[in-house]
Design goal:
40 helices, 6-stranded antiparallel β-sheet, single chain
Length: 970
C-alpha cells in the first residue's frame, strides 16, 4: 500500500449523475403526492435531491477523520420521503447513509452513495405538561431539547460534550452518553417509545397499542427471527453470561445484544437494537424519552495531581463518595486549557509538567444535602492523601470550568499542526484497571511516535478518550496507524474492556467487533443485520461487515488553506447558531469548500475549482451574515465571518474599493441621502418603489442594491439634531456616540428612537454626556468591514477613533453607543487603529450595559407591563451584554422571555435587504414561537435587528431603551 493509498482527496469528486437525480426525485414525488421537481432546484415543499458537485462536497463533511463524497444528497421532509428513498435503494441496488448533526467521530455519518439529510425537517420537541417525558425528532439538538425542559427542572439523560450540535438522532443511533449519565441514563435506558422506519419502508411505532402484533403482521420474518434469537440466547448460559459481562458498563461496540435479555416482545427488542445501530438497521424518526431531574444544588472542583498515575489511582475513592461526574484531563489537555484565553485563568500560573487533573462534580437535593456530600468527599480525599478540594457552587464559575472540559476535544484538535488530521479514540476498561491502561497507552504513544497525544474522558466510568494527530500524506503513516490500532485492541481487550464506549463502532472499530464479542455473538449480530436489512442498503461498512480494513480507507486529508480556518476540525459545533444553515450552508461547510478548492487547485483540476467557486459566491459569501455567532460556539474560536470578509475584499474591484472610500469621505451626506430616500419612499406607491429597486437589482446585482419593502421605516433624524439640551448639567460622565443606523432608519411608528431615549434617560438619571463634534460624519466602520472594503474601513476607523479620543479626554470617559453592532464595531475600529500604531485607548460600553449599571438605579418605573419578549443580538451576545438587556427588561416587565429558538436574525446591516431570504430563513422558528405567545412588547437593542424581527413577526420590535424611557416618564 503506497503512503497515499487509503486517504481521501477532497478533490476526488465525480460529476453528478443526472439520471440518478431525475429517477430519485420522481420516486420521492410519487410517494409524497407532490409534483416532481427539477433536479438541483430547491422546492418550496417536498424533498430536495441534488447531485450538484457543490451540494455533495458540503454534505459529505462530518466530524470524523473519514471523508466520503455522496453520489446524491436527499433532504427528506417527511417519513414518506425516507420510506420512499429506502424502497428506491432496494429496487435500484443503492446504499443509504442517514445524516443529522454530523458530529459522530467514527465514520458512521458519511457514505459514498445516497446521503439522506434528516436534520432540516425533523426538529419537533414536545415536552409533556410537567416535563417528565418529551417526544423529540432526530434533527433537534440536545441543547435545544434541554432548553425546552429547563422550565420544568428536567433534562435529557444523555449529556455528550457536543450537546450544542449533537442531534437526538445521532445520540440515539450511537447510544451516546457523556459526562454524568453513565449507563443508567443513556438513550437505551431512558427511551420510552420509538418510531422508526425499516429498510423495507415499513414504519413502526412502539407507542401504539398492539405494536408487537403490528410488527408481526407487516414484517413476519423479522418478528419471528428476533423471537428465535431471543430464545436461543436465553437458553444458552454461556452466551447470556458473556452478554452480561460485555454490558456491565459503557459499551457501544456492535449491536446492543443486551436487548435480547432486557425485553421480551420482539418489537421492543428491535426498538432497543435500533439504539446504537448507527443507521444500519433503520431510520429513527421520533423518540419519547423519560427525562431526569436537574439537581437543585451542585458543586464543581478541578483537582490537580502530580501525574496521571496519581489521578487515576484515586478514582475508586472518588467513585465511592458518590461523585456525579469525574472527568480526567492529562498534562497535554491542561496545557490546551491554559493556552486558551477563555479558560487560562482556571490554572493560573501553574507550570504544567506531567500533571493531570480531575474535574469533579457533586449534586445535592438541597444546600444541606450538598454540604453533607462535600464534607464526606473532603474527608475521603484527605484520608487518601489527595490534593485540596475547593468546589465552586456559583453557576458562572461552574459553567466556566465545564466550558473548558466540553470544548476540550475540538480545542486540542484545533491546536494540532496545520495539514494534519485529528483522530479521537474512545475506550473503556474496569475502573480499577484504568491507571495501568493509561500507562500502557502512553507507552504505545511513545513507541509509535505520537508525541502530541492527549488523554481525557469520563474517568468515573473507566471511559477515556485519547487524541492523536496524523499526516496521512507522510510515508508510513497508514502502516503506523494499522500497527498502533492492533496493539490498542490487544491492550483494551486484554484488560477486559470495550473498544468503543460511547462514540459508536463506526468504521474505525468495525473490523474488531468479532474479536471483542467472539464468533457466536458476532454471528447473532450478522443475523440481526440480515433480518432487518437483507439487501444491505443501510450504511454498508459501518458497525459490522466483511471488509478487514475499513478503518484504513477514505482517511481525511486536511490541506492548509487559510489561517482563519486551518484550525477547524469540522466538529460542527458552529452549525446550530448559523443563520444561513437552512438556506444555504454553514461555517463548517464554508471551510469544507475552501479545502476542496485548495485540493482541486493542488491537483490542477481547474474545472472543479471553477464549479465550486461559482456556487461558493452565493451559498458561502453572499449569504453569510458575518455575525460572528459561529465563534461563540467554536471551541477554537474560529470566526468564519473573518474569512468571508476577506473573500469579499478579494472579490471587490478597484472601483468598488474606491467607491467605499468615497462614501467614507462623504458619510454625512450619504446617510442623509439614505434617510431622505426612505422617507420619500413612504409617500410613493409601494409597487412603484419596489419595482424600481427590483429593476436596479436586476441590472446592478442582488448583492449590490438593497430591496425596498413596505416594512422598512422612514428615514431618521441627523444625529447632531438629536442634541444635548436634555442631558443633565454638570461634568460629563460619558461620551454618547449615537449610531448612524438610527439616523438612516427612523424608529418604529410612534416611537422616539434609541438615541433620543438614551438622552432622556441620562437627563432623568442626572448623568451628563458629551457628543463628539462632527458626529454625522463618523461611523464605527462596520458597513465597510463587513463588505471587505478595507480602504474605507481604515479611513473611517482612523477618523472616528481620533474624534472619540478627543471627546473622551484621552480615554478618561467611556464611549457609549446605542446599537449593539456599533458597539462591537467600535471595538474593531480600535483594533484597526492600534494595529496601525495610532491611539486607541478607549473604553467602549454598550448602552444597555451602561443603562443597567449607571441609569437604572436612579430611575423610577411608573408602571410595569405584564410580559415582554426579547431578541438578544449577535453583537450583544459576543459582547456579553445579554444580562444587561435582561436586567432592563425585568425592570419594566413582570416576565421577560427569550424564545428557546432564539438566534441571529440574519438582517446583518443591509444583508437582510440584499438577501431577504436569509432573514426569512433565519427567523422562521423564532417568529413561530413569538406568534404562539402573548406579549405586551417586543424588544431588542439593535435597529436593523428590530427591523428584521418586525418583518418576521409582524410586531413592532423596539430598542429596550425606548420602552425603559416610556415606563419611567413622570
Amino acid at each position: 500500500m503506497s503512503h497515499l493509498e487509503g486517504s481521501a482527496d477532497r478533490a476526488d469528486v465525480k460529476a453528478g449523475d443526472r439520471a440518478l437525480a431525475s429517477s430519485l426525485t420522481a420516486a420521492l414525488a410519487r410517494a409524497s403526492g407532490a409534483p416532481s421537481v427539477a433536479p438541483g432546484h430547491r422546492p418550496a415543499a417536498g424533498p430536495l435531491v441534488s447531485v450538484e458537485v457543490f451540494d455533495r462536497v458540503v454534505a459529505g463533511v462530518d466530524a470524523s477523520h473519514f471523508l466520503f463524497t455522496p453520489a446524491a444528497v436527499v433532504r427528506a421532509r417527511s417519513l414518506e420521503d425516507v420510506s420512499a428513498a429506502f424502497r428506491y435503494a432496494h429496487s435500484h441496488q443503492r446504499s443509504i447513509t442517514l445524516r443529522s448533526g454530523g458530529t459522530s467521530l467514527s465514520g458512521q455519518a458519511s457514505g459514498d452513495d445516497l446521503l439522506i439529510d434528516v436534520r432540516g425537517a425533523f426538529r419537533d420537541i414536545r415536552p409533556a405538561a410537567e416535563g417528565s417525558t418529551v417526544v423529540v425528532q432526530p434533527g433537534a439538538t440536545i441543547r435545544q431539547v434541554n432548553a425546552r425542559l429547563l422550565r420544568h427542572g428536567r433534562k435529557l439523560g444523555p449529556d455528550p460534550a457536543s450537546e450544542i450540535a449533537a442531534t437526538v438522532g445521532g445520540v440515539v443511533a450511537n447510544n451516546s452518553s457523556g459526562m454524568a449519565c453513565g449507563t443508567e441514563f443513556n438513550s437505551y435506558r431512558t427511551m420510552r417509545s420509538l418510531t422508526f422506519v425499516l429498510p423495507s419502508g415499513t414504519v413502526a411505532d412502539t407507542s401504539l397499542p398492539g405494536a408487537d402484533e403490528r410488527l408481526a403482521g407487516s414484517e413476519p420474518a423479522l418478528h419471528a427471527g428476533l423471537a428465535r434469537l431471543r430464545d436461543e440466547i436465553r437458553a444458552d448460559p454461556e452466551l447470556t453470561a458473556e452478554i452480561l459481562r460485555q454490558y456491565r458498563g459503557k459499551n457501544t461496540m456492535g449491536y446492543g445484544l443486551n436487548s435480547f435479555l432486557d425485553f421480551d416482545a420482539p418489537v421492543e427488542i428491535l426498538a432497543h437494537l435500533m439504539v446504537g445501530s448507527e443507521g444500519s438497521l433503520g431510520f429513527i424518526a421520533e423518540v419519547e424519552f423519560g427525562t431526569v431531574p436537574i439537581a437543585p444544588c451542585a458543586a464543581t472542583a478541578l483537582v490537580i495531581f502530580q501525574d496521571l498515575k496519581e489521578a487515576t489511582q484515586i478514582l475508586p475513592v472518588l467513585v465511592d463518595t458518590g461523585a456525579a461526574t469525574i472527568e480526567l484531563m492529562d498534562a497535554a489537555s491542561l496545557r490546551v486549557v491554559q493556552n486558551d484565553p477563555a479558560t487560562a485563568d482556571i490554572l493560573g500560573q501553574v507550570r504544567i509538567v506531567s500533571h493531570a487533573a480531575l474535574l469533579i462534580e457533586y449534586h445535592g437535593n438541597g444546600v444541606d444535602d450538598l454540604g453533607r456530600r462535600l464534607g464526606e468527599a473532603r474527608a475521603a480525599l484527605a484520608a487518601a492523601g489527595a490534593p485540596s478540594f475547593e468546589p465552586a457552587t456559583d453557576p458562572r464559575k461552574r459553567a466556566h470550568l465545564w466550558h473548558a472540559r466540553k470544548g476540550l476535544y475540538a480545542a486540542i484538535a484545533g491546536a494540532r499542526r496545520p495539514g494534519t488530521t485529528a483522530l479521537l479514540e474512545d475506550i473503556a476498561v474496569p475502573v480499577p484497571l484504568l491507571a495501568p491502561t493509561c500507562a500502557s497507552l502512553q507507552r504505545l504513544f511513545d513507541e509509535y511516535g505520537y508525541h502530541d497525544a492527549v488523554i481525557f474522558g469520563h474517568a468515573k466510568d473507566g471511559n477515556i478518550h485519547f487524541l492523536i494527530t496524523e499526516d496521512f500524506t507522510a510515508e508510513g503513516a497508514i502502516a503506523r496507524q494499522r500497527a498502533f490500532t492492533e496493539d490498542l485492541v490487544e491492550l483494551v481487550l486484554g484488560a477486559g474492556g470495550t473498544l468503543k464506549a460511547e462514540h459508536g463502532t463506526g468504521r474505525i472499530m468495525a473490523p474488531f467487533v468479532e474479536r471483542q464479542f467472539g464468533r457466536r455473538l458476532y454471528g447473532v449480530m450478522l443475523e440481526v443485520k440480515r433480518l432487518c436489512d437483507p439487501a444491505g442498503i443501510l450504511n454498508p461498512g459501518v458497525l459490522i461487515g466483511h471488509d478487514p480494513q475499513p478503518h484504513l480507507a477514505h482517511l481525511k486529508l486536511t490541506p492548509v488553506v487559510e489561517p482563519e480556518v486551518d484550525r477547524c476540525v469540522e466538529c460542527g459545533y458552529c452549525e446550530p447558531v448559523c443563520p444561513s444553515r437552512d438556506l444555504t450552508i454553514t461555517p463548517r461547510q464554508r471551510i469544507a469548500v475552501r479545502r476542496a478548492r485548495a485540493a482541486a487547485s493542488a491537483r490542477g483540476d481547474v474545472a472543479l475549482d471553477d464549479e465550486l467557486a461559482r456556487a461558493e459566491t452565493y451559498n458561502s459569501v453572499e449569504t453569510c451574515a458575518v455575525d460572528g455567532m459561529c465563534q461563540t460556539a467554536c471551541p477554537v474560536s474560529i470566526n468564519t465571518g473573518d474569512l468571508v470578509r476577506r473573500l469579499r475584499e478579494q472579490d471587490a474591484s478597484r472601483s468598488t474599493q474606491a467607491a467605499g472610500g468615497a462614501a467614507a469621505a462623504q458619510w454625512a451626506p450619504v446617510t442623509r441621502g439614505v434617510a431622505t430616500a426612505l422617507s420619500a419612499a413612504r409617500w410613493l406607491p409601494a409597487p412603484v418603489v419596489r419595482g424600481a429597486s427590483d429593476a436596479a437589482r436586476t441590472v446592478l446585482g442582488t448583492d449590490v442594491v438593497p430591496r425596498w419593502t413596505p416594512d422598512l421605516p422612514a428615514g431618521g433624524r441627523r444625529r447632531a439634531e438629536v442634541a444635548g439640551p436634555r442631558a443633565a448639567p454638570g461634568p460629563a460622565q460619558a461620551v454618547f456616540f449615537a449610531s448612524c443606523v438610527g439616523s438612516m432608519f427612523g424608529p418604529a411608528k410612534g416611537s422616539i428612537g434609541a438615541a433620543e431615549a438614551f438622552r432622556r434617560l441620562c437627563a432623568r438619571a442626572g448623568v451628563g454626556v458629551v457628543i463628539p463634534p462632527g458626529i454625522d460624519a463618523l461611523c464605527c466602520g462596520t458597513p465597510w468591514k463587513s463588505k471587505g472594503l478595507a480602504e474605507g474601513f481604515a479611513a473611517m476607523a482612523e477618523r472616528t477613533v481620533a474624534s472619540l479620543v478627543a471627546a473622551s479626554d484621552g480615554g478618561r470617559l467611556p464611549i457609549v453607543t446605542d446599537n449593539s453592532s456599533c458597539t462591537e464595531g467600535l471595538l474593531h475600529a480600535l483594533d484597526e487603529v492600534q494595529a496601525s500604531g495610532g491611539p486607541g485607548r478607549l473604553r467602549v460600553i454598550d448602552s444597555v450595559d451602561f443603562a443597567a449599571m449607571e441609569l437604572l438605579p436612579h430611575l423610577h418605573v411608573q408602571q410595569r407591563m405584564a410580559s415582554m419578549v426579547l431578541h438578544p443580538t449577535c453583537a450583544g451576545t459576543r459582547l456579553g451584554s445579554n444580562d444587561g438587556l435582561r436586567a432592563l427588561a425585568e425592570a419594566v416587565s413582570g416576565e421577560a422571555v427569550v424564545p428557546d429558538s432564539w438566534g441571529c436574525c440574519g438582517f446583518a446591516g443591509d444583508r437582510g435587504m440584499l438577501h431577504p431570504e436569509l432573514t426569512a430563513s433565519a427567523t422562521r422558528a423564532e417568529a413561530a414561537e413569538v406568534a404562539a405567545g402573548r406579549f405586551e412588547a417586543h424588544a431588542s437593542c439593535n435597529r436593523t435587528c428590530e427591523i428584521g424581527m418586525s418583518r418576521a413577526t409582524g410586531e413592532d420590535y423596539r430598542h429596550i431603551l425606548e420602552i425603559l424611557e416610556e415606563r419611567t416618564r413622570l
